[in-house]
Amino acid sequence: MGNLLISEPPLQVLPSLANKIGLNEAIVLQQFHYWLIRSNNERDGHKWIYNSYTSWHKQFPFWSMNTLKRAILSLEQDEYLISGNYNKAGFDKTKWYRINYGKLGMGQPLTQSEPTSDPKLDDGSAHNGSTNTNRLPESTSETTTNHSVAEATQFDWQSVIDYLNEKSGKHFRHTDSNRRLVVSRHKDGDFTIDDFKRVIDNQCFEWLHDKNMMKYLRPDTLFRASKFEGYLNNTPQQPRQGGWFD
């Protein structure tokens, strides 16, 4: 029964924010806000936080690095995140970030001396504003490792199985084993829904009318780690009048 209930503080995000800027972006922005409240790094009248992509990724272990980078870049491009460089060493290119609270219709975040409903605010997790060599902790109490929940929320794996059924005429179900296959390939290479559809299209084109091969139109063949990328880059034989190209 224990694995049916959340036993650690989850990442939280308002549906209205996710609807406004995207789910991945909302999760990142909420986590950045969490740290900005605790930051003592003030520059040019604003509070800032800084971290390497590698360290940020440890706070979002359910995403690939590319997915995280895209979410942060999207927030910068849409000006929800403002980046800067206040590093003392010229060679240090670590980005500093602040949230553009005005674009969200909000004021600046509370400082640590102001009231808050978060009992963990004064737990010593704030940055030291006198130096720029300290990075954020590698993990926080807000980070969840409940991968299955995150995966189901982030990636519409069921649509991949539905598409395979539609193209092959088969009836595979939304089972845990099929979910693991699809989500694992998505995480391994940041493959998209369109990539999965391309694999299905490629192999249906080659195997659907071959009685010896059509049995392999199934998730455990198409989405196997050792085969998936090869199927994705496959160029099916094209039909011509009177036969096929060799």
UniProtKB/TrEMBL annotation:
Biased composition (Polar residues): 127-147
A Pfam entry, by short name: Phg_2220_C
Domain Phage conserved hypothetical protein C-terminal: 160-233
Region entry Disordered, spans: 108-147
InterPro entries: Phg_2220_C (IPR011741)
Protein name as it appears in the record: Conserved phage C-terminal domain-containing protein
Organism of provenance: Lactiplantibacillus modestisalitolerans
